[in-house]
Design brief:
Oligomer: single chain
CATH class of the largest domain: Alpha Beta
Distance between the termini: 59 Å
CATH topology of the largest domain: D-amino Acid Aminotransferase, Chain A, domain 1
Strand order of the largest sheet: 2-11-10-3-9
CATH architecture of the largest domain: 2-Layer Sandwich
């Protein structure tokens, strides 16, 4: 290597080091060491050097944060460990009961605790292998997330390299968020875009110049719909296919958990784990140590008063047990860790006018009244409508069109109309009456026994419910057909190109090119996405039908029990209800759905189109297949989560309650009432060593 080459390498490495230090100082320490202008100058200098010497480019260079579109964008990836949500508390009494429960389980003091502002963002998982960022996943359903690595790399507060870590795998979990100021600016821009687009769309299509058509295209690509809140904006931004657009959205990251997969660590406090990743260059949120319940209450009030000063939107405080051994003893429920809870701030309320009450028909035919409101900002979001749940709710709250009303919003909760203000009535208000007809205009609204929510009597013949079913089928929660969103489906229905789900798979390129402003590339991309959806697994297909009470977990249980979608609809209600966790509600919903002739025909048509309805049974080495376990007491050889993972890897099932269907109770030190329950039901209790014998036979 020549002397000149050595100098170039040193120069490149020096610039990279300076830029990484500057990013850490700005985003982690909040103590900038150079101006934005100087940073940009050095970044451009580095980029020029790398362009001239491409053999020296590495994927961890600050220049490699943004680079077009990823080929593997949004692939589904299993999390190494499940990402749980949090249980909520909204009163001091609930917090007190939570602490009492934890103390009872551990039979020891669970203080100190850590308090952190709950950032209103999008939960993600970052995987670092040998110190380098290799993968970024969204939370998804907690078990499976979306691969957003390409976009994660654009967020400058996320280090591409973990300082002082050079071996093993470390997972950092945290929140991607959009600062309040950036959120407001983005919505202002979108509002201007909408005004421009509305003016352009008023021009007769035949008189639109190619320049105007291109402007319409660009405005739609940039976005015209206002984001409801900063969390919504962050989530929408992180799922963009073009990473340059993501980079322009001013997203930030704050870490709240570290998991050492293949990295040795002796850290036994949550707070010290955060200090560890902070020292590695990862931003973490402010936190407060509380040594008593009185400490918690004092700091709850302080954070609540100060929250308007925060860079981000927050709707509460996360409280966590600091000691990791205690966390492990407490373990998890089916949905959330026992050692953490989210205390929600009191709901924010505002006064506005009730302009109208309209009906909304869902994909299952359920009809709900919706309040149309004079737009008002509540809890950091612009609210223009709110659910009214059912007709009885309108009567109970004595809501009249023209009323002044109190609107409440708390966190992720859908805005609700709390009450009317009768004293402000002027006599012009109108009493609302539930219409006789569904919004489809064809079928009557009917009430079913023991159900407060009415339904369209037309079932799957209802045009509105049919449209919503098609939208759900193609949505992220359905088969995730990219390019087939609400707007496109509505356009296809209006154009009579599709009438039902099978029609999606009969569309041609020629059909799509007849749509206004559709070009060959857009049509080709949609058809590719449609063909890709034919490879969807049976579980996803069953969920995509939009059957009431049939979500991801229920669909998997049904398929594991009966083998195929066809079989699910041919078994008896009693057979369905024999599956642990499934009730009459599920069996009734399945029976009702399949009893309709159109749905039977749908199953047959989709089979002919090429969908696979049979669950692929993976060969399980699992020696615990068919066995249900419950864990109690303090474990000595495993963490609780490790034991749960081991049972499930070997085909077993873990539940939290002892029932007649429990096969084994694994007993650690200081077991609780579960042992007594197991003994009363003659359920076999085993130690950790006896469990090891089961899996090592």
């Amino acid at each position: 290597m020549s002397k000149e080459d050595n100098q170039i390498i040193k120069q490149i490495e020096s610039l990279r080091e300076e830029l990484v230090s500057a990013e850490k100082a700005y985003y982690v320490s909040n103590k900038p060491i150079m101006s934005d202008g100087e940073f940009d100058k050095k970044l451009n200098e580095l980029r020029d050097l790398e362009d001239a010497n491409p053999e020296h480019i590495v994927d961890t260079s600050p220049t490699q944060r943004v680079s077009g579109t990823a080929d593997n964008a949004f692939n589904a990836i299993n999390h190494r460990q499940r990402m749980y949500s949090l249980d909520n508390a909204d009163s001091e009494e609930q917090l007190k009961k939570w602490i009492e429960r934890m103390t009872k389980i551990t039979d020891s003091e669970i203080f100190p605790m850590i308090l952190e502002p709950k950032i209103d963002g999008l939960a993600v998982s970052l995987i670092y292998e040998n110190g380098k960022l290799t993968q970024g996943l969204t939370r998804g359903d907690g078990v499976v997330g979306e691969d957003v690595t390409h976009n994660i790399r654009t967020i400058k507060s996320i280090p591409l390299i973990l300082g002082s870590v050079s071996a093993g795998i470390i997972e950092v979990r945290g929140e991607v968020y959009m600062p309040k100021a950036s959120f407001n600016l983005l919505n202002e821009q979108r509002s201007r875009n909408k005004e421009k687009l509305d003016k352009l769309l008023q021009i007769d299509k035949g008189k639109l110049s190619s320049k105007k058509k291109e402007e319409i295209k660009l405005l739609r690509a940039d976005g015209v719909e206002l984001f409801v809140n900063a969390r919504n904006a962050a989530a929408g931004s992180l799922r963009q296919k073009d990473s340059t657009l993501v980079a322009s959205r001013d997203l930030l990251f704050s870490g709240y958990q570290v998991i050492f997969h293949e990295y040795k660590s002796e850290i036994m406090e949550y707070s010290k784990q955060l200090e560890f990743i902070r020292a590695c260059g990862v931003p973490v949120s402010d936190r407060i140590l509380a040594n008593s319940f009185a400490d918690i209450l004092t700091n709850l009030n302080k954070i609540s008063k100060d929250r308007e000063e925060y860079l981000y939107q927050t709707d509460g405080i996360v409280i966590k047990v600091d000691n990791l051994t205690s966390q492990d003893t407490l373990g998890f429920t089916a949905k959330a860790p026992r050692w953490a809870i989210a205390y929600k701030f009191p709901a924010e309320e505002q006064t506005t006018s009730l302009i109208d009450i309209k009906l909304q028909t869902g994909r299952t035919g359920a009809i709900t009244p919706v309040a149309i409101l004079e737009p008002v900002e509540v809890g950091g979001a612009i609210v223009s409508n709110a659910t009214l749940h059912n007709p009885d709710e309108v009567k109970r709250k004595d809501l009249r069109i023209g009323d002044y009303v109190i609107v409440r919003r708390a966190g992720d909760v859908i805005p609700e109309v709390v009450r009317s203000l009768p004293l402000r009535r002027n006599g012009k208000e109108k009493t609302w009456k539930m219409p006789d007809l569904c919004p489809c205009g064809k079928y009557k609204i009917e009430y079913k026994k023991d159900e407060k929510v009415p339904r369209c009597s037309g079932g799957t013949n209802c045009s509105v419910s049919k449209k919503e079913s098609l939208i759900f089928f193609a949505s992220k929660n359905g088969l995730d057909i990219e390019g087939l969103g609400r707007e496109t489906i509505e356009l296809l229905l209006e154009s009579n190109i599709i009438l039902s789900i099978p029609d999606i798979y009969r569309m041609t390129k020629e059909d799509l090119l007849e749509l206004p402003f559709w070009k060959e590339k857009k049509a080709d991309n949609l058809l590719k996405s449609i063909q890709k959806s034919l490879l969807s697994d049976p579980q996803r297909i069953l969920v995509a039908f939009g059957i009431r009470h049939v979500g991801t977990r229920t669909a998997l249980q049904l398929l594991q029990a009966f083998g195929s979608i066809r079989n699910v609809f041919e078994v008896t209600a009693a057979q369905i209800e024999s599956i642990h966790g499934l009730s009459t509600t599920v069996s009734t919903a399945l029976t009702e759905w399949f009893s309709e002739k159109k749905n039977k025909l749908l199953i047959t048509e989709l089979e002919k189109i090429g969908f696979n309805f049979t669950l692929k049974i993976e060969q399980n080495t699992g020696k615990l297949t068919g066995s249900t376990f419950v864990i109690t007491g303090t474990l000595s050889n495993y963490s609780r989560q490790e034991l749960v993972d081991l049972i499930e890897e070997n085909g077993g099932t873990v539940t939290t309650a002892v029932t007649k269907k429990t096969d084994y109770l694994i007993v650690g030190a200081n077991p609780g009432s579960k042992l007594e329950k197991a003994n009363s039901l003659s359920i076999k209790s085993i130690s950790e060593s006896e469990f090891n014998l089961l899996i090592n036979k």
